[in-house]
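re: that complex we talked abt at group meeting.

here r the seqs, copy pasted straight from the sheet so there may be weird spacing, ignore it
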Amino acid sequence: MLFDVLIIGGGIVGCAIARELSRYRLEVALCEKEVEVGFGTTKANSGIIHGGHHAAPETLKGRLEWEGNQLWDELAADLGFGFARVGELTVALHEEQLPVLDRLLRHAAVKRIPGVERWEPARIRSEEPALSHDILAAVYAPTTAVVNPYEACYALAENAVQNGVTLLTGLPVRRLHQKGDLWEIVTPGACLESRFVINAAGLYADVIAAMAGVQTFTIHPRKGEEYLLDKRLRGLVKRVIFPCPSPVSKGILIIPTYDGTIMVGPTAEDVHDRADLTTSARGAQTVFDAVRRLAPGIHEKDVIAQFAGLRAAADGEDFIIGPTAKRGFINVAGIQSPGLTAAPAIARSVVELLRDERLKLDLRDDFIAKRPAPIHFAALSTQEQIALALRDPRYRRIVCRCETVTEGEVLDAIARGACTLDGVKFRTRAGMGRCQGGFCTIRCMELLARARRLPMSAVTKRGPGSWLVCARTEEEKADAT
Amino acid sequence: MITSNPRHLRGSYDVIVVGGGPAGLEAAVAAQEAGADHILVVDREPEAGGILLQCIHCGFGLHRFGEELTGPEYAQRVMKQALAHRIDIVTDAFVLDIDLQRRVKLMTREAGVSLVEARAVVLAMGARERTRAAVRIPGARPAGVFTAGMAQRLVNLYGWLPGRRVAILGSGDIGLIMARRLTLEGVEVAGVFELMPHPNGLNRNIVQCLHDFDIPLHLSTTVVEIHGHNRVEKVTVAPVDDNLRPQLERAWEVECDTLLISIGLIPENELSERLRLRMDPVTRGPVVTSAMECSLNGVFACGNVVHIHDLVDFVSAEAMLAGRSAGLFAIGAPLRPDNVRLLPGENVAYCVPHTISTEREHTVYMRTRRRLEACKLRLVAPDGRIVHEKRLRYVFPAEMVNLKLKPVILQHFHDDALRIDIVGRSAER
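got the structure back, here u go
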């Protein structure tokens, strides 16, 4: 198959690029090694759309952070995923941190970010009573938002597919060959051809670049552990709470996620293994020691889930976006924080890069900007719930008790592309609550098995190798295959 | 499958019971016997009976029915009794919410979402299992980490195995039962690992489920890391010191494709929290009177939603009490008030009910904090006077202590609070 543009990597960045390119009359493919999009760095993202004032204005990060921030309202409205501008406070606990607050205020002034202001202790206490009384001052930014990163990623991918993008999942790229004006992309299943290759491979972007013969950078995975707290703490803080940042990290935050669950983290630890998603006792200690300085009422006992993600930091810490020595091969690499925030702006700049590379870009007149938003039963009013259940019997059965997810939502998620338990979980929240799948796992597995015509033993948590159950006898095993 | 799904829901009921396990079914019957007419039991499974349906081992019913039954047999008896009383049981249904006026927001297969009024509500939602996150086991997050009850459901109700070689964290009863069950299914059980220096399940289960099958039980040992990217590949276990801190230098690895977690149950109190019921921080269930009434009038609770029981037989007893009270409340009969608060004292973690009356007979359930031998259970008045004393050979946290309180015991007691102490010789290792 011949494409105009083939994007390697179906994380938030790859999906945003695919959706942006789907506005034009192009043959675009998105190639993802995992069985679903968003299963890499994106799924473990903190879900913050940064206010715009953190990264220095002279860096690429700094420019795209604020540009990206401003694009999210329209994106969320068009694609129907949860997004809320809850605002943030960056707090100083020591005298020596006060200059950091001044720097943030300067960044905001240079970038003309509206509403960023300094708050004194009295204001902080009245607005966020759970915060420590040791806080000396804070910078408030109303521009900061929260979003479910995987929901945004699915929404972008779905809308891209609606507009004709070819989505290829479970397809790792093994080799890249330049053949005249074309790139040959070798995968275990198929050999694809494309005029342009966009390297949005996240943690593996340096590996993909090496395949193309342009290894000019190295990715250094930096692990972040996150801890989700029981929903009884909902409302503990109203805004995202940042400590004063250090040179390598924005520090450990208190995040009121879009769904209301409080999340604390992430740690920042350089690791060598790009598959190391382990959490540690030390990580938990670091997180809770840090957040208790910000809000003393937070306790480890309230943890309902823990996970880790890897940031794809490149040498020099800035984003690496641009053409390479090999014509047609474009890097979008080193997209660490504020990568999620910047993703829509990154997608736009990739379009401009392609234009510069003389790719003919004609807007489609049949572009569909809006994606029908998935129903979230729990978020509906009682009257809406009554009407929906009356109309559609699939919304008359609860699958996940903690998050009140109905069978209809799970079936809809499967119809939209979920093929694993995690895929269903990230799309619907089934299994994210306090019982952590104790009730819904078997129900979701049954629905997946039925809808995808799979035996239960072929249903996985997140793709090959992550099997959940096995057959009891040899005969049953034979039946199952 | 026995069901009795009503064709139509009424707009109002005398009593709505949330949960169709043994607690809910027994409460419904008792409510009807107390005089309530229209009673609805709501259960979220396709078949009522609760967790008993997956407990295919025996050991149930000795107190309640005078014979040893399996879980499904026990469930069937209470189910048949409920059907004989023509109780409406709606299955595959869910109570989404209850408001302070006892309006129940209900989801059923037949009617979708509807609002139904109840004169009295009985909370009988049971419990959920504590998960990996409750003890924050570090490591990877592969497939193959299950709670013991979920594995039991998979094996006994669906006929699937959770894996081929299993390690079990925690010596709670469900974990012990599953060690035996999986062994019988040809699954290799690498061992049971218990953080505490003593087992957390009933003694009979230690003997019948582990010793009889040569399954090793490692006390004072815990899982410190889970390994495996896609599926569990092994776990690291380590002995713990007297302060329960893992001794990592003495850790070892256990090859397995599955980790079962059996570290206890938590009362399922989402609805209780929504109703803002007063909760007991120790039981994590609602505070109840001797009539099993919660802090909101007309709302009653029974079974594992109030506190975690060892035996379903005691759940039945408690449920009959709650159901009777709910039935009386629904028909407008006054509930007789309590006049004494019970306070957990020395070595008593909690006691249920939280209040009693000196005029009536009560069974008080409690759990101890530590193992003691040759002990005395004492009822102590606020001035320190010992009102009543009872000898107990031994007590330990895994076994609930029951105390029968008769009016004669309290006939010379005139205060409003009574402390319960259990004192004796320490049996900790």
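couple things i noticed - Residues 312-330 of chain B form the longest helix (19 residues). Chain B touches chain A through 48 residues (CB under 8 Å).
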